[in-house]
Amino acid sequence: MSGKILFTIKNQGYGRGNYVIFFTSTRAIAAKTGGSFLKDLATLSGSTGFLLSEKMQSESKSEELSKLIPESILSSEKNNFEIHYTEISMVKVKKPGFATFFASEIHIHTEKKKYVFKEQEASKEIIGKLQEFIKTTLPDKYTEK
């Protein structure tokens, strides 16, 4: 069930971590690239040096993961998880704006869980490409509402 990575969106905030989301033809894989309690503490205390180092480590891990096959990505970290497209009931992509505190948001809902990934740095072009990918891959599950 390896498959091929068809689309990637990096630096998604989810829970207490940063994730990269890899989309294949049958599933999305969320792979943790960084973030922790220490990151939250540094954010609150204004430690920009730590945050910059965390961002660089997260980007480096994203690059490493992008060279792996989906099964290896999934097994590379205990907090990585997959969402099979057959489990998804709805996907929504929100572009940056006032209501999202100027972050893009990817909402993926399954019967059991609602995932919300936030991205502060994705360009409108990348978010537009993601919307098109999801509309093409999951046309009956994509909503703009």
Characterise this structure.
The protein is α+β, with helices and mostly antiparallel strands and 145 residues long. The protein has a single domain, classed as PH-domain like, CATH 2.30.29. Helix content is 33%, strand content 34%. It contains four helices and eight strands. It has a four-stranded antiparallel β-sheet with strand order 1-2-3-4. A four-stranded mixed β-sheet has the order 7-6-5-8, covered by helices on one side. Strand 1 and strand 2 form a beta hairpin. About 12% of the residues have low confidence.
Please describe the topology of this protein:
Elements: E1 7-14, E2 17-23, E3 27-34, H1 37-45, H2 48-66, H3 70-75, E4 81-84, E5 88-94, E6 104-110, E7 114-119, H4 124-137, E8 142-143
Parallel strand pairs: 5-8
Antiparallel strand pairs: 1-2, 2-3, 3-4, 5-6, 6-7
CATH superfamily: Pleckstrin-homology domain (PH domain)/Phosphotyrosine-binding domain (PTB)
Please count the helical segments: 4
Would you state the CATH class? Mainly Beta
Order of strands, main sheet, comes to: 1-2-3-4
Question: Which CATH architecture?
Answer: Roll
Number of domains: 1
Based on helices, strands and strand pairing, what is the structural class? alpha+beta
| Mean pLDDT reading | 79
Instruction: State which percent range the strand residues make up.
Output: 25-35%
Number of strands: 8
Instruction: Predict the CATH topology.
Output: PH-domain like
Largest sheet: 4 strands, antiparallel
Short description:
The chain is α+β, with helices and mostly antiparallel strands and 145 residues long. The chain has helices at residues 37-45, 48-66, 70-75, 124-137; strands at residues 7-14, 17-23, 27-34, 81-84, 88-94, 104-110, 114-119, 142-143.
